[in-house]
Amino acid sequence: MPESDARRRVLGSALGSLLLSVPVRDARADRILAVRVWPARDYTRLTLELDRPLKYRYSLLGDPHRLVIDLENVDVDGGIRDLLAKVKPDDPYIAGVRVGQRRGGIVRIVLDLKQPVEPQLFVLDPVARYSHRLVADLHPTVPTDPLVTLLEQNAGDKPLIVDDPLAAIIQDKNAPGASLARNATPRPAPIRRLVTVAIDAGHGGEDPGAVGRRGTLEKDVVLAISAELRQLIRNEPGMRAFMTREGDYYVSLGDRVRKARRVSADVFVSIHADAFVSPQARGASVYMLSPRGASSTAARWLARRENKADLIGGVQIAERVRDRMAREVLVDMTARSKIDESHRLGRRVLTALDQVAELHKRSVEGAGFSVLKAPDIPSVLVETAFISNPDEERRLMSPHYRRQVAAAIFAGLKDYLRPTLPGQERRA
Ligand SMILES: [Zn+2]
Questions:
Q1: How far, in Å, from the CA of 302 to the mean position of ligand 1?
Q2: How far is the CA of 421 from the centre of ligand 1 (A)?
Q3: Taking the model in full, what pTM does it have?
Q4: 218-238 burial string, b = 16+ CB within 10 Å, else e?
Q5: Strands across the sheet containing 94-102
Q6: How far is the CA of 264 from the centre of ligand 1 (A)?
């Protein structure tokens, strides 16, 4: 076979081949510093990081579906070749990648797609440890409905009860349009539905959250604790869990709230692991939304840091503005009762955490956390420990400790929810 074919075979991954050509080297061409791919069912994200703001163009082609991205003045011999290895065969959206050098210093990336997508490309300014980034998000043309996700996350777990948001979806799947007709007629007498707990594992994808001295990432630890918590909830009659993120990808703060509201969550628990400049800071703490300002300087500082997640995790500016406007409206609507309920929920979780962990603060602190702004769902944010404290980082790395923390959060939730759980009414 011709030599170029042989080389192509060697360089090409199972997913695609590298288009070889004689590189036209430009001394000023930018090197790609890093390439990251975050595949998820919600959407797959591809991030290119480089020294300078990147000029790009893209087009979407059909038959077969492809996304073509042209990068101006980029060195094809830089990290961009990593892309071939980083796209995995089980990526829900990308079937293969090709990278080639074109005339005029253009590097062309062709993403062969498994299904039509709604692409969103945008650049992000340097923030935290990142330099300039180009982000390409491949969303499905019909966004995944969180109710369907809830259904799948709980498939076969528990029988559905009539007055349940999922019942309409199942009915619709079997007989499209039936749920609309159903809504038009008087509903049957409500039967108590399963209590839904929204578990929000903080950060994810581009946003690692806090990083411990041994390199432990908050996003990984909190996802593990969340998975433990989900299992405990699954085993509990009358309760079911919904996870706002199930893997290592970024979900915007606004989307976390929207998802929880869409599944009519009864409570919302955001799970984090704190960091502080002093490695001595230790202990668990529980936070709630305080619309009237932070309860302490530390709480305000923490809320500001957690709210920066969208900048680091990467959200289009338009979405950030839309979210902020939506949240401002929501905050105005925040009822006193929700604040009281969040406080009560926080107290129960804090009391339960006291059994397994040292507490950083003995009372529920308040500040302006964006992720706690669902107007109608009692919401708390749990900082499970300080990942910046070497002892606590070690503990967070232990599956045993993570189970204990999850069990404590579960005990607090159950205590709070007891009056609403089926069969528990009399004990309220
Ligand atoms: Zn966090």
A1: 9
A2: 30
A3: 0.84
A4: bbbbbbbbbbbbbebbeebeb
A5: 56-61, 66-72, 106-113, 94-102
A6: 24
Dihedral sign computed on CA atoms, order 387, 391, 394, 395: negative
Distance of alpha carbon 279 from alpha carbon 387, whole angstroms: 9
3-state secondary structure of 134: strand
Distance 345 CA to ligand 1 centre (A): 19
Q: Give the CATH number of domain 146-158+194-427.
A: 3.40.630.40
For ligand 1, the distance from its centroid to the CA atom of residue 266, given in whole angstroms, is 22
Largest CA distance in the chain: 81
Q: Does domain 3-140 have CATH number 2.60.40.3500?
A: yes
- Kindly give, in sequence order, each residue whose CB lies less than 8 Å from that of residue 301, ignoring residues fewer than 6 positions away: none
Question: Distance between CA 406 and CA 420 in Å, rounded?
Answer: 21
Per-residue pLDDT of 65-108, as tens digits, reads: 999 999 998 888 778 888 989 999 999 999 999 999 988 889 99
Residue with tokens 């062969």: 112
